[in-house]
Amino acid sequence: MNKTHYIFSYGTLTNEEIQQALFKRKLKEIPDQLPGFRIADRKMYGQYLVVERTGDLKDSIPGSALAVKEEELPIADAYEGESYKRILVKLKSGINAWVYVETGAQ
């Protein structure tokens, strides 16, 4: 199945070298925003950004919706690791996308 999914990225997955290493291609990127979330003050392992849901639509994270094939989602999951989980969100544009949040977050 070749269903297209979108992953909202605000960090390393927007890096073309990382995309090439993981997916063997440059991903289609659509600039977008994630409303109702913000970048947390803390970082995972002291270096990786963490997003947190605020529910306040004034809070918004700029980034990109990255188009991936359904069979590529496990590649992204493995890259993000067990400290992150994937949740479905609606972006400002109306696109439904996956975003990685800290495991245990809502």
Brief overview, please?
This protein has 106 residues and is α+β, with helices and mostly antiparallel strands.
Describe the structure.
- This protein has helices at about 15-25, 75-80, and strands spanning about 5-10, 30-35, 35-45, 50-55, 60-70, 85-90, 95-100.
- It has about 110 residues and is of the alpha+beta class.
- It has one domain: Roll (Hypothetical upf0131 protein ytfp).
- Helix content is about 15%, strand content about 50%.
- A hairpin with a 5-residue loop joins strand 6 and strand 7.
- The protein is globular, with a radius of gyration of 13 Å.
- It contains 2 helices and 7 strands, in the order βαββββαββ.
Estimate nothing, just give the exact number of structural domains: 1
Question: Which structural class fits the helix and strand makeup?
Answer: alpha+beta
CATH topology: Hypothetical upf0131 protein ytfp
**Distance between the amino and carboxyl termini:** 29 Å
Just name the CATH architecture: Roll
* Rounded mean pLDDT score: 89
Helix and strand pattern: EHEEEEHEE
Strand order of the largest sheet: 1-5-2
Strand content: over 45%
* Annotated CATH homologous superfamily: Gamma-glutamyl cyclotransferase-like
CATH class: Alpha Beta
Number of strands: 7
Shape: globular
The helicity comes to 10-25%
